[in-house]
Amino acid sequence: MFEDIDRILIDEETIRRELRRLAAELVKAFKGRDLLVIAVLKGSCVFASDLIRLLPLPLSLEFLSASSYGEGTESRGTVNLRFLSDDLRLSGRSVLLVDDILDTGRTLKAVKERLFELGADAVKTCVFLDKAARRAVDLQADFRCFEVEDVFVVGYGLDYAGRYRNLPYIAALRPEIYGGAPKSTS
Ligand code: IMP
Ligand code: MG
User: pLDDT > 70: what percent of the chain?
Assistant: First the structure.
């Protein structure tokens, strides 16, 4: 099962520690607000599940699915969005958009724009991983757990061709699998 894995980048203990740090930041930021957490499927399922259990706040949870990759490791630039609820009430609420990783930024930018079109007046973004070196659009995460180097990673919800989401840690894929050297932003 692990033949594509190169090495562990972030172990379980480190994840637990940084989740607690992030949760404390979020509690401070959203205390007293009408918080709506929107998790982007499928990648953020593990992160969002662990994170909300560390937030002692009244909140609601929604999901949307965004896909832009197909079977490969490069974002194609077009993002398909699907909301799971038909009656999403966004106006007047503090929306926290949760995703697994901010890579080129195209996915979160598209989702954020769509949420504003649907009536949101405040959207903050929260990502488990931030590959800052890969950014292709102007978008920073408001909250993040870790910054990671420019290698393709799997585990803790993140997949390669649909696999490895169940690893409890973050691991780097063997470079030869996604084409040798780390990718550049262009
Ligand atoms: P972006 O639109 O390029 O920011 O891509 C965001 C989406 O691409 C994430 O939500 C992930 O699903 C996927 N992605 C980007 N980098 C990685 C990676 O290193 N491993 C697994 N999935 C990734
Ligand atoms: Mg994703």
Answer: 90
- Which residues pair with residue 83 across a beta bridge? 64
Query: Domain with 38 in it: what CATH number?
Result: 3.40.50.2020
Is residue 173 within 6 Å of ligand 1 at its C-beta?
Answer: no
Residue 4: CB within 6 Å of ligand 1?
no
CA distance 172 to 170: 7
The pTM score is 0.91
Judge whether 161 lies within some domain.
Answer: no
User: Strand 123-130 to strand 94-102: parallel, antiparallel, or no bridges (unpaired)?
Assistant: parallel
CA of 76 to the centre of ligand 1 (A): 11
From residue 121, how far is each of 91, 95, 111, 175 by CA, in Å?
Answer: 6, 8, 14, 41
Task: Decide if 177 is inside a domain.
Answer: no
The arithmetic mean of pLDDT across residues 112-135, rounded, is: 95
Determine the pLDDT at residue 147: 97
Whether 143 and 126 have beta carbons less than 8 Å apart is answered as: yes
CB 41 within 8 A of CB 67: no
DSSP 59-104: EEEEEEEEE--TTSSS--S--EEEES-SS---TTSEEEEEEEEESS
Question: Does residue 100's CB lie within 6 angstroms of at least one atom of ligand 1?
Answer: yes
Distance of CA 69 from the midpoint of ligand 2 (Å) = 9
